[in-house]
Design goal:
Number of strands: 8
Oligomer: single chain
Shape: globular
Structural class: alpha/beta
Largest sheet: 8 strands, mixed
Strand content: 15-25%
CATH class of the domain at 62-195 and 214-264: Alpha Beta
CATH topology of the domain at 62-195 and 214-264: Rossmann fold
Number of helices: 9
Order of helices and strands: HHHEHEHEHEHEHHEEE
Helix content: 25-40%
């Protein structure tokens, strides 16, 4: 695996694992540090199959974006986009329509700086460094690229479980839901321990030692994040169950991530 370090921004923390880089490591990516790979190995020990779950989550992203494209959406806002790997939103969307606009948002320096390198010559895709917990500022920056009078697909994949209860994650998501124009889509996946509570407690304890502690929540709570939106069939499910590509997977509840795709009803 290529371990060229030219992409590492000045001042990057090489000693503390970050969620974005660990996720990249679990996907088999090359933009992570030794500390992240060690953390990913521990994650696979305490929650066997966590890497497979991450790949299933990545596949869900592709299927959700394709659904949006088929529905006529040409604007995508990916908050918590993480480290760029093959199959990013702009690659999927712009293969269908080169003019599709994609804005990535992350608060992790490595994710932002490397994305800038990848997107440097792409006039319809960009990234900003911003915090989901500051929706007004984030959405104001997003309006520089995206037209909020036209439908947008907002993606929050494997993101909200990093927002602590004290920050009001459900209320934050509600602000984003309300800001989207009619006909927009909201894609969310979130870790749940409903099916494997003991393993999830171990995984939460591990993430508490990283720079991004995580909180798994119930399927009912996650479904509530789509309040006011019409869930696209089959509704809120474990990610392998959402419009799978021909494959049949046993025990989808083992895949951690639960969520779906909702459409904002026309006023």
């Amino acid at each position: 695996m290529d371990r060229d370090t030219n992409w590492i921004p000045d001042g990057a923390d090489l000693d503390t694992p970050s969620a974005a880089r660990v996720y990249d490591a679990l996907l088999g990516g090359a933009h992570n540090f030794e500390v992240d790979r060690e953390f990913a190995a521990k994650a696979k020990q305490v929650f066997p199959g966590v890497d497979v779950a991450c790949r299933a989550n990545r596949s869900f992203l592709r299927r959700a974006v394709v659904h949006g494209l088929d529905a006529g959406v040409r604007q995508f806002l990916d908050i918590g986009s993480g480290i760029p790997t093959v199959g990013n939103v702009h690659e999927i969307a712009q293969e269908v329509d080169p003019g599709a606009r994609v804005l990535y948002v992350d608060n992790e320096a490595v994710a932002v700086e490397h994305s800038k390198l990848i997107l440097d010559s792409n006039e319809h895709a960009s990234i900003i460094r911003a915090d989901m917990c500051q929706p007004e500022q984030l959405l104001e920056q997003a309006s520089d690229l995206l037209d909020f009078s036209e439908p947008i697909m907002l993606l929050m994949l494997a993101l909200v479980h990093f927002i602590p209860d004290s920050a009001g994650p459900a209320e934050l998501v509600a602000q984003y839901r309300q800001a989207l124009p009619d006909g927009s889509y909201l894609a969310i996946t979130h870790a749940t321990g409903d099916a494997r509570p003991d393993d999830m407690r171990k995984l939460e304890a591990l993430y508490a030692t990283s720079s991004n502690p995580a909180v798994a929540r119930s399927r009912a709570w996650i479904t509530g994040l789509f309040d006011g939106y019409e869930l696209v069939a089959p509704g809120a499910v474990f990610v392998p169950e959402w419009r799978p590509d021909n494959e049949t997977l046993d025990n989808p509840e083992n895949y951690i991530f639960f969520g779906g795709l909702g459409r904002k009803r026309d006023s």
